[in-house]
Amino acid sequence: MARSLDRKRCIIVTVVTVVLLIIVLGLVLGLTLRRDPEQFETTFIDRCETFEGYDCKKLWTTFEQAYVGRDPCKVTPEDYDPFIAAASFKPACDRMMFWSKTKDVVHAFTEKNPCFVTLEDTVLGGVVDGLTWCGKEGSSETFTIGCPGWTDCENNTVRSFWNRASVAFADAACGDVTAMLNGALDTPFSSASIFGSIELPRFTSPKVKRLHILLVSQTNSGANCTNASLQEIQKTLSAGITYSCKDMTEAQLQQCSHKPCGNCW
Ligand code: DVN
Asked: Which domain holds residue 65?
């Protein structure tokens, strides 16, 4: 008799423990997911406020209207048009820097050499650089997990944003434009990249006077400016825009970091 009572008591304790565990897990997950949407907005607004002259709350509202409540694979670049208009910026003529397969190197450079400006150094790209976000039909939330990946679908929330922002940045290009490419690759330039397919074709003369390619490698053994893929750039480049190229090592680039604009390559 006593033994069966003990067994019943043991079963009850186990069931209660499991139920309590499930409740705690649900609460933690709920809080984490709940915090994410607010955290994303907070990050967006905090980053926006590092740029002068923008109504960051309004910018956030314009931004989220592009994707909230929608299938995250049916957000087109044009859906971000209102945000692009609200995040207009003064183009840094002669100081705009494009890049491809050199994200870490180029941003380490522009961080030390504020003379040059990448898309991610403007409010347009800076507010969401390195972030993932999407919406969902029937929800007013911004999700940062469970979103489609870059190659999962053509019109996905993040990829459409970068395609549209890159159009705006390239359309603003003026004067001498620089592009940092990766000399460690057999083909430093790809016409399929955002730089190759979206930005380069948008450089127009006489607004853009020169395109200077910076081919950066870790050592001198990388690709140089005679690389065949770079010839494609010259073929694509609009008539009237002068092309130049310089291969340099990351160490040489490092020495440029503290020099004023333009007298480094
Ligand atoms: O000129 C720059 C800049 O202005 C930007 O707007 O576009 C140009 C860089 O794009 P790109 O020429 O396509 O160069 P990448 O290095 O191939 O890709 C740039 C970024 O797009 C990558 O760093 C990825 O961003 P992430 O994840 O590092 O924050 C993203 N990307 C491109 N292809 C991807 C991808 N992410 C995941 N999967 C892929 N296949």
From this structure: 37-257
> Ligand 1 within 6 A of 101 CB?
yes
At 9, give phi and psi (nearest 5°).
-60, -40
Q: Cα(184)–Cα(188) distance, rounded to whole angstroms?
A: 7
Structure confidence at residue 32 (pLDDT):
47
Ligand 1 atom at minimum distance from 97 CA: 1
Residue ID of nearest Cα to ligand 1 atom 36: 150
Give the pair of three-digit tokens for residue 192: 């399929």
Q: Tell me: the pLDDT tens digits for 228-262? A: 999 999 999 999 999 999 999 999 998 887 776 76
What's the structural domain count of the chain?
1
9 is a domain residue: no
Residue 82 has what pLDDT? 98
In a domain, residue 170? The reply is yes
3-state secondary structure of 191: coil
> Which pLDDT does position 119 carry in this prediction?
98
Is any ligand 1 atom within 6 A of the Cβ of residue 44? Answer: no
Amino acid letter, residue 76? T
Task: Tell which atom from ligand 1 comes closest to the C-alpha of 193.
Answer: 13
C-alpha of residue 100 to centroid of ligand 1, in Å: 7
Tell whether 100 is covered by a domain.
yes
**Which residue reads 């590092």 in tokens?**
50
Q: Residue 28: its pLDDT value, please?
A: 59
Give the ligand 1 atom nearest the CA of 179.
Answer: 1
**CB 210, CB 242: distance < 8 Å:** yes
Q: Domain with 164 in it: what CATH number?
A: 1.20.82.10
On the question of pLDDT at 31 being above 70, the answer is no
Taking only the tens place, the pLDDT of each residue in 60-85 is 999 999 999 999 999 999 999 999 99
Residue 156 included in any domain: yes
Using a 6 Å cutoff on CB, does residue 195 contact ligand 1? yes
